[in-house]
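User: I'm curious whether this sequence folds into something compact or stays loose and floppy. Could you predict its structure so I can see for myself?
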Amino acid sequence: MDLVDSHCHIDFPPLGDDVDSLLRTADANDVRHLLCVSVNWRDFPAVLALAEAHRGVFASVGVHPNERDEAETPGETLVEAARHPRVVAIGETGLDYFRSDGDLRWQRERFARHIAAAQASGLPLIIHMRDAADDTIGMMREHGADATGGVMHCFAENWEVAKQALDLGFYISFSGIVTFKSAVELQEVARKAPADRILVETDSPYLAPVPFRGKTNQPAFVRHTAACVAELRGESLEHVAQVTTDNFFRLFKRARREAGTLQ
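Assistant: Here's the prediction. I'll summarize afterward.
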């Protein structure tokens, strides 16, 4: 059985303190590939270095919507960085009205630049969306995000919002949140989402799934999220692992399956 952690931050502390051990633990839990996601420009070289150094690790390039103090990265800079063969996506990008307030035009302008960079590079988008579902979906439609496709990372909305994203050709990625008892609406999404459009992720070091809730998350724990999704759908863990792994490589076309252990 092979699993993919489709969204993690193994460069973040404390995970980045011992990446080799982290990857060995992931491999022992059948995680064979992972996507280390960029959140700002200053740390992108470190993210890329991890993808260059480790088999089964891929990178993205982008600036998180909450990175308010970072100088804006020009779209052409994103496109240039996206030419690297280990970079498989643009993002994470999107809108977050939970942690940012006031006039958020800068957030929307940044999101538009990332969509344009995805179109120019031919890579899919990794979209972060929090307390901003209407505006996020609206901008995806307005700026032609359906032309690139991508994933709604760490999805935490209801089926109505999920269906709008699915209609735009996007995938839905489930994090440890889906294992929480209170996540009733999200669990409905896990049951209803088409099998060919689901992914699993950790978003580590955050949002550890049950039974590790409240602890530091890590790629190995994606197994528990996949098991929860399997139970909700009335399917085996092995089936969900195969489906979500196949979906990952279908979406992130530049990523290649690499035989052997995650290392």
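Summary: DSSP finds nine helices and eight strands in the chain. The first strand starts at residue 3 and ends at 8.
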